Amino acid sequence: MPALFRLLCLLLGLLLGLLAPAGALRAQPAQLTPAQYQQDFDYFWTTVHENYCYFDKKQTDWARVRQLYAAQLSGINSRAQFVRLLENALNELYDNHANLSTNLPDSRRLLPSGTDVWAGFQQGRAVVVAVRAGFGAERVGVRPGMEIVAVDDVPIEKALRPLLGRSLKAVDEAAREVALNQALAGTHNAPRKLTVRTQHRRRDLYPDKPTAQLEHIRYAGLLASRQLGTLGYIRLHNSLGDNRLIAAFDSALNTLGATTGLILDLRETPGGGNTTVARALMGRFITREQPYQRHEQPAEERRFGVRRSWVELVAPRGATYSRPLVVLVGRWTSSMGEGITVGLESMQRATIVGSEMARLNGSILSFRLPNSSFGFNIPTERLYRVDGLPREQFVPAQHLISGSSGEGDAALEKAVQVLKGGGK
Q1: Which residues, in sequence order, are CB contacts of 16 under 8 Å at separation 6+?
Q2: What is the pTM of this model?
Q3: What's residue 5's pLDDT?
Q4: CATH topology classification for 223-357+394-419
Q5: CB-based contacts of 54: which residues, under 8 Å, 6+ apart?
């Protein structure tokens, strides 16, 4: 009887194994050894050292980064601790286009996709320059021009200190601006309190109450489209990385084919995208193959002394929309959204209306650590407008002060004015 019972248990176990979801019985990753953490850190540091293409713009001493963070490895005994160590090491680059492929509950939100307010320093004061339409900061009354006095009751200068790299040879304005906006973005698990000064009064504002919208971003679809009188309007919903957008965009554009002009709104594209989708969209507005951006890969020149650069082309695709085109951009137009913008302008196919964009550096490449279960992304290619202007330095010809004011949509009104012939 015991033998029969053991046999029945064995058969039951096999049956349950067959019925279990794929991966459910897979063993959890074993805790890494100190040698494995060291190997992963060495791979991370060397990969950034050999491939990151913007060291010349930074005050970062990358050799010092190795000393500072390798010294902490002896105290690492969990995945969470190692993630935090690499987050801090990568933050030494103060580059919003460099990040890990994972995060912790108390990790800082990514810029610009994880924030709803953007600020810069003006005459020594931290001043709001843009507010993301439809999110918590706008809802509670944060507006451009307000001074940020404190974050979570910590005076702004003090709030910046832990976010500034420890390896910096000097703290430049770029590092201060990144740290400022990291402080404003907050962490994934803690509601923010922003103390602002406006009209000589201090106000406490709570962008994440009653709910943290930045943790639960939902869109009604890949895009929205409509007619504004005789004009067409298409707004992308952070979908430039979704290949399904190609068909959705084609359908919307075909429906608006008889309009006298088109507004392409890229102000909510903070998550980047891919060049397949970008070229597909741009291809609908041209009649011949044209270049839209220049690439440069410094790693090859550093290693072999041979410069590598090339121009990427866009080919016409489908029925051409040949009427005038205006592209709307802002601080939450990032990466591939920025590429489409400078591409359409380079091809003399669109008028660009709006403020400075996210100004993300270059094109990123993803790398995976040999032992840990996550990777990291860094810019490895510099990107330029066809005429050689670095993409991150682009400013729209129709430059407007960043929104949102909470009172109408000045950029959209300007776009309509341009298309109707009333704006230069």
Answers
A1: none
A2: 0.90
A3: 40
A4: 2-enoyl-CoA Hydratase; Chain A, domain 1 (3.90.226)
A5: 93, 95, 361, 362, 379, 382
